[in-house]
Write a structure and sequence with these properties.
The structure holds 2 protein chains of 2 kinds. Chain A is an alpha+beta fold. Helix content of chain A is about 25%, strand content about 40%. Chain B starts with a helix and ends in a 7-residue tail after the last helix. Chain B has 2 domains: about 5-100, Rna Polymerase Sigma Factor, Chain: A, CATH 1.10.1740; about 120-195, Arc Repressor Mutant, subunit A, CATH 1.10.10. Classes of the chains: A alpha+beta, B mainly alpha.
């Protein structure tokens, strides 16, 4: 009995007279849509989203397709594609700053650093030191750098002509209090050599040889940044 | 480690973590892509599913992981569901771009437009005029419906959604959809009669 009017409705919907209803509210972001699919939205937000989906063809299509692809067996990813996906990011993010030194017996020549140098009680950018023609240091050089709210202080101390102690201090930038529970790891060519947790005081890596190292600073479960230390002959 | 912490680690450029992300989720995303294309009846020729999978991972990782870091684990929602949503959005947008659009007005080889071809040639002029008037009046009746009922009309008669799809959206059973549909049709028939049309409908 309703066939005629339903047929006419179908014709109407493809005719020039018909204007589809305007969508109710804005299209949801992916977080909200994912919550909706997992039935994790609050009542009010869910009602608003249902009203939107009923009026927005594109979002409804996304929802319907989602429901229809949940189940099924997993297909293997071709090995060459997996390699391509893995290579999308470079080995690791670049170091937050670097310290490049040349060891001259028990003294150092500072070649480059984007950190500042502690000279007596003064903190000076490397460029200023260079302007003053100061680039040779006795047996110790100390470099500082603020990274977000952390002040990192790295001291390199010459023990013997080819052996060094590398001391790391991490402090809160504002209060200059030591930060506890950070992990500092000395890495060479991707291999972890030594690793310590910061406590009340500094972390010291003793008898480090000439070479290129990364000092990786991590919180409990997150790598925060690294510092490149390159001591050349 | 929670999904959110895992994503944060990936976004801090940890290579090990990114490789683990690939191991955990590449099969899932790859399978979703194939299922979406099958569902939409679009064939994946050559290495298209590989290319689309690669593009999705590029989108997630580019600009310093901007897209991946937009995952918020809202209300405890899982990363797998969020990635499914991202994959669906990407693939549907891709399919929309793939489909060639045919203009209703563009003249084809026969000298006719698609609009001309679609016009019924079996009806006489008075019948056509009567149908136009009927459609205009029915449109006025549809516009008098409440918004939610207009949406319902649009879902069924323009978008051709199934009862199952509409039921899933409103989280209601088939009888309750039938009842709602019956009520809307009754309203439209009343309105249509008042306009002097089709008492035999």
């Amino acid at each position: 009995m309703n066939e005629k009017i339903e047929g006419l409705l179908k014709k109407l919907c493809v005719s020039d007279y018909y204007r589809p209803p305007e969508p109710v509210g804005a299209c949801p972001d992916e977080n909200t849509m994912a919550c909706f699919c997992e039935e994790k939205l609050g009542k009010q937000e869910q009602a608003a989203l249902v009203a939107h989906l009923a009026s927005c063809e594109q979002c409804l299509e996304q929802f319907i397709v989602q429901l229809n692809i949940i189940h099924g067996s997993l297909e293997d990813v071709p090995a060459d594609l997996l390699l391509k996906l893995e290579s999308l990011i470079a080995e690791d993010k670049p170091p937050a700053f670097e310290i490049i030194l040349r060891a001259l017996g028990k003294t150092f020549k500072l070649i480059a650093s984007s950190g500042d140098v502690l000279l007596g009680q003064e903190i000076m950018p490397v460029s200023v030191l260079r302007g003053r023609k100061i680039n040779n240091f006795q047996d110790t050089v100390t470099i500082l750098k603020d990274i977000d709210d952390i002040r990192v202080e790295i001291q390199i101390n010459s023990k013997t002509p080819n052996k060094f102690n590398v001391t790391v201090k991490t402090k809160y930038k504002d209060s200059l209090k030591m930060i506890k529970d950070l992990r500092i790891t000395l890495v060479k060519s991707g291999m972890e050599l030594e690793s310590y947790i910061t406590g009340q005081s500094r972390v010291i890596f003793e008898n480090v040889s000439l070479g290129k190292y990364n000092l990786e600073v991590s919180s409990q479960d997150n790598k925060m940044f690294s510092v490149l230390v390159d001591i050349r002959k | 480690m929670t999904d959110l912490e895992f994503v944060q680690n990936c976004c801090s450029h940890e290579k090990k973590c990114w490789n683990e992300f690939n191991q955990r989720y590449s099969r899932l995303i790859y399978s979703y892509i194939n299922r979406i294309f099958r569902l939409k009846g679009v064939s994946l020729t050559g290495d298209l599913s590989d290319d689309i999978c690669h593009e999705i991972f590029v989108v997630l990782s580019e600009n310093n992981f901007k897209r991946l870091s937009s995952f918020k684990a809202k209300n405890g929602c899982s990363l797998a569901t969020w990635l499914r949503q991202v994959t669906v959005n990407y693939c549907l947008s891709y399919i929309r771009k793939m489909k060639p659009l045919i203009s209703l007005e563009e003249e084809r080889e026969s000298g006719l437009t698609l609009k001309d071809t679609l016009k019924s040639s079996t009806k006489s002029s008075p019948e056509i005029i009567h149908e136009k008037e009927a459609l205009k009046s029915l449109d006025e009746c549809v516009n008098k419906l409440e918004d939610k009922d207009r949406h319902f009309v649009d879902l069924f008669y323009r978008q051709n959604r199934t009862f199952e799809d509409v039921g899933r959206l409103f989280n209601v059973s088939r009888p309750s959809i039938d009842m709602r549909k019956f009520r809307i049709i009754a309203k439209l028939k009343d309105c249509f009669r008042l306009k002097g049309f089709a008492l035999d409908l």
